[in-house]
Amino acid sequence: MSDQNSNSGYALLRNPRLNKGSAFSEEERRAYGLEGLLPPVPTTLTLQVARIHAELGNLDNDLQKYLLLSDLQARNETLFYAVLMSDPATFMPLVYTPTVGEACQKFDHIFRASRGVYLPITARGRLKELLDNWPMKDVRFIVVTDGERILGLGDLGVGGMGIPIGKLALYTACAGVPPEYCLPVTLDVGTNNESLLEDPLYLGLRQHRVRGADYMAFINEFVQAVQVLYPRCCIQWEDFANINAVPILETYRDKVCTYNDDIQGTAAVALAGMYGALRISGQKLTDQRFLFLGGGSAATGIAELISQAMALEGLDIAAARDRNTLFDINGLMVKSRTDLADFQKPFALDHAPVSTFVEAVHALRPTGIIGVSTVPKLFNQRVIEAMAEINERPIIFPYSNPTSRSECTAEEAYRWSGGRAIFASGSPFGPVEIAGKILVPGQGNNVYIFPAMGMAVFATEATRVTEEMFIVAAKAVAEQVTDKSLATGLIYPPQSQIFEASLHVAARVAEYIFDHKLARIERPADIGKLVASRVYHPAYAA
């Protein structure tokens, strides 16, 4: 065990990275001054995990379970990850979506131990100093948010910190990225959520959001501070509003190791779903036409990655983009509209205006519809029935999170299409029985992508994250889906196998990184072994 001299006695039991709780042996208790501070009989990590399972089983509320796990992470990190990694499929919805949405909404009212780094815009000029207060000096991953567009819940200010914390927990639980290299960060530039500003318990700056040049200067100072303090760090941008997410990514993607999971990770998991769906329908990607409900950064990110994948299969990029069409609150995105942002214009069609989504389905005859609107129930019966009229196996992907924001449920998609829909959603839905057949809906969760991307970057010490790396990741996810799963309609690997799936994806992406000279280390003879050698396993140090 490291830091033994500076961590002993009561202080050791308050150090989450070194604490073993009741698992300290009798010899360790004597050596570190722990005798009398713990129940007298030592236990094992296995029994500690069983105790946490039992505690969770006595709770009937997911937010209470989230809080129990958060408290555990704050006092015993090894045990926390041993619990998560004992059954990732069960714990992912508790530490991340959908439960994390409620936790973020109630953040100021349930705040316990602080975790991560908060950088307020009032500290401009001192961000390096504040970042340097983090005790770990070799940070490889920062997940950062400014809290403006948390899931489909909107501006939650500093309450958005639940997202970076949850994402980084899944980096470790689902792909084995060692937690000591991970840092959650929230940039507090204010909030436009008046209910938060009026709440006496709100923990963030009580001012409206800073915009424009001052905001971008703040972002730039943050990026530069990270480069100085943590030169091998990858920055993952998370839950920024479209007006900031797109320009931030464009500014830094070719300068530092960075990516935006809402744009690129969401796109990759959607593309993975496409590859899986096409294994069911037997069609080619270049023959598909997709209609998106929603025109923000998630929609354009998916549309662009699908377009790039189509181009790799021989389609002209302009023709590929014409096959990925956006529909937002103002109707179909057509070239005659004057309200389109620059990042939306590549997908604008030369077409007459269309004001309703079901009319757009009839007019464009898409093979698949993808929901990233965060508005529930917009894939209504008329829309699903129209898709089923046009396609033998319509692709229906309501990807909005959390569950309350999903454009339709699995049961609605299956029933209204006569059981023919190829379905995946952003939030989990249970199996559905249609005409005596059990259909298993897939969850197009970014967890298939970002932990594996993190492990690939960590193992190779990559200098950049490129767009094509996400296409490689999508193919690596899809190739793991078995024929047995496809027969039930499941187009993603089972989440119970997420750890193995993530390491497979990480190895594929790492191979690309070495092939394209993006690694900081020498290429090994066996890339799979390299990835496996870097995996964190929750175990107490001897």
Automatic annotation (TrEMBL):
Superkingdom as given in the UniProt entry: Bacteria
Domain (Malic enzyme N-terminal) ranges: 73-253
Organism: Labrys miyagiensis
Gene3D superfamilies xrefs: Malic enzyme, N-terminal domain, NAD(P)-binding Rossmann-like Domain
InterPro entries: Aminoacid_DH-like_N_sf, Malic_N_dom, Malic_N_dom_sf, Malic_NAD-bd, Malic_OxRdtase, NAD(P)-bd_dom_sf
Family: Belongs to the malic enzymes family.
Protein name (record): NAD-dependent malic enzyme
Record's keyword annotation contains Metal-binding: yes
Xref: PANTHER family: MALIC ENZYME-RELATED
Segments forming domain Malic enzyme NAD-binding: 263-514
Keyword set, alphabetical order: Metal-binding, Oxidoreductase
